[in-house]
């Protein structure tokens, strides 16, 4: 598991709920929190991949349980959160990482694609946060982090629905920060170009339209990053860990760019 460089187990005795945990950023967050001592309730729609992450954490000496569910169904999310509480006890940490992205020019975007994108990225995020916040507000409080995107802060001609969903996630975080303070703190992390399975698919679509190779498309974008490299899921997970820790005790309602310097607002 990642996070072995930590000098202390920040979340020993704490229980965390993480969505989108089977792959990419969600998996990176799960591995880091497990290394920090948290017991994990992991959610994803891909049950087999989720089981693999649970096994990876257990093999490393951590504690994790799988709760597969479709986050676009509020009833399914509420049930998963309830089952996690029954299995682990009170949840005081939560991360929403479930999400999708598709590359479609704005004038070709369909109503069906729009509804699917917002159903997962926005509706799924809000109702997960709501279920966790209700539990935390009735108990001893807690900390929540939503994975947004730098797409929340600037448009994309070929991902209108995605950027709209992520901008709305940031707005949800700001509103919930006002609703939940001071008992629960909530913040957003806005990644840039992350080395996940999503990234090659994005650049395959863009490359096909531009008449270049997917690698040329990726290389051109990476060349614009001041830090000079594509970021890893653990780059994102470290900032999530900070927001969940006591070090961020007076921080709520913020949307932190973790993008290697791509944007500055």
Count of DSSP-assigned helices: 8
Rg, nearest Å: 18 Å
Bin the helical content. Answer: 40-55%
Order of helices and strands: EHEHEHEHEHEHHHE
Beta-strand segment tally: 7
**Structurally, how many domains make up the residues?**
2
* CATH architecture identity of the largest domain: 3-Layer(aba) Sandwich
Trace the largest sheet across and list its strands.
3-2-1-4-5-6-7
The CATH homology group name of the largest domain: NAD(P)-binding Rossmann-like Domain
Global outline: globular
Distance between the termini: 32 Å
Provide a short characterization of the protein structure.
The protein has 265 residues and is an alpha/beta fold. The chain has helices at residues 24-35, 47-59, 74-88, 111-138, 160-180, 198-210, 214-222, 233-244; strands at 15-18, 39-42, 63-66, 93-96, 142-147, 184-191, 255-258. It folds into 2 domains: 15-192 and 232-258, Rossmann fold, CATH 3.40.50; 196-230, no CATH class.
Care to describe what's here?
The chain is of the alpha/beta class. The chain has two domains: 15-192 and 232-258, Rossmann fold (3-Layer(aba) Sandwich), CATH 3.40.50; 196-230, no CATH class. Helices cover 46% and strands 13% of the residues. It has eight helices and seven strands, in the order E-H-E-H-E-H-E-H-E-H-E-H-H-H-E. It has a seven-stranded parallel sheet with strand order 3-2-1-4-5-6-7, sandwiched between helices. Helix 5 links the parallel strand 5 (142-147) and strand 6 (184-191). Helix 3 runs parallel beside helix 4, helix 4 (111-138) packs parallel to helix 5 (160-180) and helix 6 (198-210) crosses helix 7. The longest helix has 28 residues, at 111-138. The radius of gyration is 18 Å and the shape is globular. Residues 3-7 have low confidence and may be disordered.
